[in-house]
Design brief:
The chain is of the alpha/beta class. 46% of the residues lie in helices and 16% in strands. The strands form 2 sheets. A 6-stranded mixed beta sheet has the order 1-2-3-5-7-10, with helices on both faces. Strands 4-6-8-9 form a 4-stranded mixed beta sheet. Strand 1 and strand 2 (15-20) form a beta hairpin. Bound molecules: coenzyme A.
Length: 260
């Protein structure tokens, strides 16, 4: 597997742990990190050994404290749009990944960090995690999908509140809002994330990919999520895993899935 300068990667038992490695800058997303995440996701799609992904940040303090503010200097409108477009493309690649992706949020998830966590399929956070979209403090709005994904996760009223006040919220508040799935003790963050992702990767992989595709169809312009579900349900019924899963149930044994 390719090595990256801004990411630490460990593949074990089919689970790829990606750690964003800029601890001295609170793991802020500069161009290099975005580029490395993009390439890493390409490999996740292509490498059959990778069954699921966990993304976290290096150190005890920060998951990702946003886009790298130092790179904002001297930007004009076209550069701003290009930056946002690039971020959207990479985060969409994470969101549309047919393999499950969990954000293990180990501290500050601010701005682009909150957006990165929201682009993952599930979010597990340590007790010290803090979430927020503080962009208006800098005179901008979120540019990596935050206005859309936050609204999808917590609803319009709370999204507007968080986006306009730039307030930071703690993990238990984020859990109550539905922004994250679970809060765990800091020491067990990665272990719990692994247990959850292993549970998901033990299911029929084709069906998991279709769950992801079908749920996100709800949020795509011009696509009827109900029609998508009917179509994908049919696709699942045509798989070997469907035959195996139903037969295993009837034969009172554990199913062995092959992803076909
Ligand atoms: N971009 C670039 N550098 C960042 C950064 C970001 N988003 N967030 C933190 N850093 C850097 C700091 O500049 C500092 O670098 P230095 O040591 O070279 O001066 C280092 O990371 C440590 O951050 P610091 O602010 O000293 O730590 P703290 O514990 O006092 O505060 C935060 C932590 C996360 C609350 C604070 O860094 C912060 O508010 N960051 C910006 C968050 C933000 O606005 N994100 C949205 C960007 S669009």
């Amino acid at each position: 597997m390719k090595q990256f300068s801004t990411l630490i990667t460990e593949l074990s038992e089919g689970i790829l742990l990606i750690t964003i490695n800029r601890e001295e800058k609170m793991n802020a997303l500069n161009k290099a990190v975005i580029g490395d995440l993009d390439e890493m996701m390409e490999e996740v799609y292509a490498n059959a050994e990778i069954k699921g992904v966990i993304i976290t940040g290096k150190g005890a303090k920060s998951f990702v404290a946003g886009a790298d503010i130092a790179e904002f200097q001297g930007m004009d409108k076209a550069a701003g749009m290009a930056m946002a477009k690039r971020g959207h493309a990479v985060f969409n690649k994470i969101e549309q990944c047919p393999k499950p992706v969990i954000a293990a949020v180990n501290g500050f998830a601010l701005g682009g960090g909150c957006e990165l966590a929201m682009a993952c399929h599930l979010r597990i956070a340590s007790e010290n995690a803090r979430f927020g979209q503080p962009e208006v403090n800098l005179g901008i709005i979120p540019g990596y999908g935050g206005t859309q994904r936050l609204t999808q996760l917590v609803g319009k009223g709370k999204a507007l509140e968080l986006l306009m006040t730039a307030d930071m919220i703690d993990a238990s508040c984020a859990e109550k809002l539905g922004l994250i799935n679970k809060v765990v003790q800091t020491v067990e963050l990665i272990e719990v994330s692994k247990v959850i992702i292993k549970k998901i990767t033990s299911k029929a992989p084709f069906a998991i990919a279709k769950v992801i595709q079908s749920v996100y169809a709800h949020f795509k312009d011009g696509i009827d999520g109900f029609d998508t579900e009917i179509d994908l349900f049919g696709s699942c019924v045509a798989t070997e895993d469907f035959k195996e899963g139903t037969l295993a149930f009837l034969e009172k044994r554990k199913a062995t899935f092959n992803g076909k």
